[in-house]
Amino acid sequence: MYAHLRDMQLRQSLETEHGLFMAEGEKIIVRALEQGLVPVSFLLAPRWLENLRPLIESSGAECFLLDESEIEKLTGFHVHRGALALFSRPSPLTALELLSSAQRVLVLEDLADHTNIGAIFRTAAALDWDAVLLSPRCADPWYRRAIKVSMGAVFSMPFAYVEDWYALPEQLSAAGFHSLAMTLSEDSVALTEVDLAPEEKIGLIVGSEGHGISEHWQSTARTRVNIPMRENIDSLNVAASVAIACWELRAK
């Protein structure tokens, strides 16, 4: 399972099929263990064994030691600091479970880039948002690159894939959420001008950089919002946009 890490499609297929994910780097491995995630095995350069020995021994998982050059040959890429671990994926959550207890949720539609997914999870965790809901075509938050960019925030931020994607607007409304769609439509209002009650539940909907959010979400969102920008600059990277919006809409 540690071979061919450069082949993203193969890795996603293998890891999903076997219910696994991979953590890279000592800090990420430690954070996964601290969150109670269950390791299957470790692959380490010898210099990391002493630091991780107590956690490895208490986990009962196998540990393989190889020189960093041998790890690179096996995996096909330079492993960050020579430490990898395979973990079991936890049981998936549902949108209804998350909406029942959340106050602020991110709703991500068709974001296919793992780096953006990781950055968004890190932002959501840092700014105390409660959950992330993803469309079926979003990139996998459990993929190694997303986990690494999130600095392990994927482990602590509850999330769910939503199979019946176009039923979600009604579910948000029924759960008492004010849905805010980030869009450049002419009737959108500046984030700073949205009138929200202090305890109002918020669902922030974000689409891909290329296509934005779908017409369905455009038409069903309660409010369409934008980030005011200088003339001739029409958009930001999606992770940057989410960071600004999460800050503006954070609990105060």
Describe the 3D structure.
This protein has 252 residues and is α/β, with parallel strands linked by helices. It has two domains: 8-88, 2-Layer Sandwich (60s Ribosomal Protein L30, Chain: A), CATH 3.30.1330.30; 95-249, Alpha/beta knot (3-Layer(aba) Sandwich). Helix content is 37%, strand content 20%. The chain is built from eleven helices and eleven strands. It has a seven-stranded parallel β-sheet, sandwiched between helices. Helix 6 (114-126) runs parallel beside helix 7 and helix 6 packs parallel to helix 11. The protein is elongated and about 60 Å long. The mean pLDDT is 90.
Give me some keywords for this one.
alpha/beta, 60s Ribosomal Protein L30, Chain: A, seven-stranded parallel β-sheet, Alpha/beta knot, single chain
Spell out the blueprint of helices and strands.
Blueprint: H1 8-18, E1 20-24, H2 26-34, E2 39-44, H3 49-59, E3 62-65, H4 68-75, E4 83-88, H5 95-99, E5 104-108, H6 114-126, E6 131-134, H7 144-150, H8 153-156, E7 159-161, H9 168-174, E8 177-182, E9 189-190, E10 201-206, H10 215-220, E11 223-226, H11 238-248
Parallel strand pairs: 2-3, 5-6, 5-10, 6-7, 8-10, 8-11, 9-11
Antiparallel strand pairs: 1-4, 2-4
Radius of gyration from the alpha-carbon trace, in angstroms:
20 Å
Trace the largest sheet across and list its strands: 7-6-5-10-8-11-9
The largest pleated sheet is described as: 7 strands, parallel
Q: What's the domain count?
A: 2
Hey, roughly how much beta strand do the residues contain? Answer: 15-25%
At the third CATH level, what is the topology name of the largest domain?
Alpha/beta knot
Class of secondary structure makeup: alpha/beta
Poorly predicted segments: none
- Strand segment count: 11
Shape: elongated
